[in-house]
Automatic annotation (TrEMBL):
GO CC aspect terms: membrane protein complex; plasma membrane
Lineage, top ranks: Bacteria, Bacillati, Bacillota, Clostridia, Eubacteriales
Compartments (UniProt record): Cell inner membrane
Name this polypeptide is given: Macrolide export ATP-binding/permease protein MacB
Keyword presence, Translocase: no
Membrane topology type: Multi-pass membrane protein
GO molecular function: ATP binding; ATP hydrolysis activity; transmembrane transporter activity
UniProt similarity note: Belongs to the ABC transporter superfamily. Macrolide exporter (TC 3.A.1.122) family.
Superkingdom of the organism of origin: Bacteria
Chain ranges of the ABC transporter domain: 4-243
Pfam families reported for this sequence: ABC_tran, FtsX, MacB_PCD
PROSITE patterns: ABC_TRANSPORTER_1, ABC_TRANSPORTER_2
Transmembrane portions of the chain: 277-297, 530-559, 580-605, 625-645
């Protein structure tokens, strides 16, 4: 059985519409191991076309092309890739080395595509390169070699997977006569060792060195002469060791691994370093804006919540009755207050108190009463008078830390805030003051001692003239005037801060409201969230821009590297491998953009916070780790999605046409 047999091969090229060009006409020929065949013929006679068919680069023909008795026209795509990868080796006139890869990488790439381990790859490549006298050149780039050396590298690359057939399309066409002889000698050696070498040439001199000369004209074989036979010294060696080797690389070899793909991509990207740096910076801007917008929202929210909770005892949870009117929210705008009595809140009944006290982790429950009004309550001292906008009972909510002066009120005492104290002349701690409460239609006067000055809640609550007294004292005042005090606020105490959120949640679940501060905080948080998301969405528009940028740059890259893609395909890369290399590049761009974006965000955060700390004593921008991770992921996903289109285009390139590209 012949190694390679062509039966009735016909090949037509489509020219335009239904116009076809008959390039190979009824070719019947067979070749054997250990032959060095020269194919000669005029330019345009169909030599390259024939080589591409034999090499499995072009499957669009009729007839049978048998290799070891197997018709390669009937192979599945995957098998055909494997055939190119391990059964044939290609050598081209123009060397077709990949310029940005070292000699070693150029030679090993075919093994990289088979996912052979790095160590094995290098060992095998060094072996072959030193056989061809190139052991000192392995770290050079192709441009640093002479033509003869380049062609020897190309031969080494063709031999790396130990193929049975070497196809050389005018391998000496670009070489001077001295190096031509060197390369011929090498090809002869290869044939002598039992391979089939088919070489296209123009030169009669070159042809005369081969064992057989096939003449082709106008797509037909016009002569086929055997000149001599190599002594088949190879048979022994070949049958045992080489066959085993062939199995190792050809059959057990897998496909391009992810890590190799990343390494290849990195080498490609290094070649166009400036472009890729700018691309990454461009991509990072969108990521950075989104991260910064989210972080700005977070910073503002954090600042607000901290301010709101600064003076609140975290161990006390406030519960309020919801008002009758569903839509009536807490109205903080003092100027709109018209009614003297604003407390339209319902009171807590025993059943409510019962329900609240049963919440888990509540250690104590306190009754409270708060009256917010204009004109109904006031304080008199030493001929001076102050309105009380808020008259409230004291609870554990107010602690020593809220006091500016004095102590918390005991029985018969009251706590007033700074603005009330100022109104009464300032020096009132320890003094007796008169509290006037409007109860029903009459004003009730009670003498109380000022125990201290409260200064809690920051600016917000200090403008509200407030006084605090014990629940029992207020209850007594009501009782003395034939009235009953019902709590309109309940304070739930707990033992550990960690229970607070859960208790707050439960209070809401039972249908009560939290403290006015809590309600305001959550309202404000919601507002900031909306603004943050809107701003982030606007910032995200720049992500679309960077996606388009990546698509464009990668399309350009595919066009630039068409030839390289053709070479890799000729060596046996599958579509999937090509796609993988490009998607990997997109992935790396995504990683770089993301990392630059995150790092830049942190730097900008530092800058802004330094400034805002100087001016307002706050951190305006607070990046959370999830934002950084989110930014990085978004960057990678967008890049990879954008890379898919160009990668597909690259994968679909026709190898024959790509190789013809200059
Ligand atoms: P050569 O013997 O010089 O290598 P080729 O095999 O490259 O010749 O080409 C054989 C013939 O087929 C030429 O006439 C060429 O014009 C034609 N041909 C080659 N490739 C194509 C193609 N892609 N489309 C149309 N015609 C082609
Ligand atoms: Mg040609």
């Amino acid at each position: 059985m012949c190694l390679l047999e062509l039966k009735n091969i016909n090949k037509y090229y489509k020219i335009s519409g239904s116009n076809k060009f008959h390039a190979i006409k009824d070719v019947n020929v067979s070749f054997n191991k250990g032959e060095l065949v020269s194919i000669i013929g005029e330019s345009g006679s169909g030599k390259s076309t024939l080589m591409n068919l034999i090499g499995g680069l072009d499957s669009n023909y009729s007839g049978e092309l048998l290799v070891n008795g197997k018709d390669i026209g009937k192979l599945r795509k995957k098998e055909l890739d494997k055939y190119r990868k391990s059964t044939v080796g290609f050598v081209f006139q123009s060397f077709n080395l990949i310029s940005h890869l070292s000699i070693l990488d150029n030679v090993t790439i075919a093994m990289t595509l088979s996912n052979v381990k790095k160590k094995a790859r290098i060992k095998r490549a060094k072996e072959i390169l030193s056989e061809l006298g190139l052991e000192n050149q392995i770290n050079k780039k192709p441009s640093q070699l002479s033509g003869g050396q380049k062609q020897r590298v190309a031969i080494a690359r063709a031999l790396i997977n130990n193929p049975e057939i070497i196809i050389a399309d005018e391998p000496t066409g670009s070489l001077d006569s001295k190096t031509t002889m060197q390369v011929l000698e090498i090809l002869r050696n290869i044939a002598e060792k039992g391979k089939l070498v088919i070489m296209v040439t123009h030169s009669e001199k070159v042809a005369s060195c081969s064992s057989r000369v096939v003449k082709i004209a106008d797509g037909k074989i016009i002569s086929d002469d055997e000149i001599f036979k190599f002594e088949n010294t190879y048979e022994l060696e070949n049958a045992s060791s080489n066959q085993k080797r062939f199995k190792f690389f050809g059959i057990r070899g897998k496909n391009l691994g992810i890590i190799s793909a990343v390494k290849l991509s990195l080498k490609n990207m290094k070649e166009k370093l400036t472009r890729n740096i700018f691309l990454s910076i461009g991509g990072s801007i969108g990521i950075m804006s989104v991260i910064l917008m989210l972080s700005l929202g977070n910073g503002v929210k954090t600042y607000f919540n901290k301010t709101m909770n600064n003076y609140v005892n975290p161990l006390v949870i406030e519960a309020n009755m919801p008002s009758d009117e569903d839509d009536e929210t807490i109205n903080l705008d003092v100027t709109t207050i018209q009614k003297p009595e604003l407390n339209k809140q319902k009171s807590f009944e025993d059943a409510d108190i019962q329900k609240l006290s049963q919440i888990e982790n509540v250690s104590k429950i306190e009754k409270g009463y708060t009256s917010i009004s204009i004109g109904s309550n006031s304080l008199n001292y030493d001929g001076k008078s102050s309105n009380l906008m808020r008259l409230s009972t004291i609870s554990s909510n107010i602690t020593e830390s809220n006091l500016q002066e004095g102590s918390l009120p005991k029985e018969g005492e009251m706590l007033i805030n700074k603005s009330v104290s100022d109104k009464l002349g300032g020096d009132v701690v320890g003094k007796k003051v008169t509290l006037n409460i409007l109860l029903g239609q009459k004003v009730v006067k009670t003498e109380l001692t000022v125990s201290g000055i409260e200064n809690a809640g920051g600016d917000l609550s200090s403008i509200m003239k407030s006084a605090f007294l014990n629940y029992s004292d207020l209850e007594k005042i009501y009782l003395d005037n034939n009235s009953t005090l019902k709590p309109n606020v309940m304070y739930l105490d707990t033992t550990n801060e960690k229970y607070t959120p859960q208790i707050k949640g439960k209070v809401k679940e039972l249908g009560y409201l939290g403290s006015s501060q809590d309600q305001m905080t959550s309202m404000f948080n919601e507002m900031i969230n909306i603004v943050t998301y809107v701003l982030s969405a606007i910032a995200a528009i720049s992500l679309v821009v960077s996606a388009i940028m990546i698509v464009v740059v990668m399309y350009i890259s595919v066009v630039e590297r068409t030839k390289e893609i053709g070479i890799i395909k000729a060596i046996g890369a599958r579509r999937k491998d090509i796609r993988r290399i490009f998607v990997c590049e997109a992935f790396l761009i995504g990683v770089f953009s993301g990392v630059i974006g995150v790092v830049a965000s942190y730097l900008i955060m530092k800058g802004i916070n330094t400034m805002s700390n100087k001016l307002f004593n706050i951190n305006l921008v607070i990046i959370r780790r999830v934002y950084a991770v989110f930014g990085l992921c978004v960057s990678i996903i967008i890049s990879m999605l954008s890379g898919l289109l160009p990668a597909n285009k690259a994968a679909k390139l026709d190898p024959v046409e790509s190789l013809r590209r200059e």
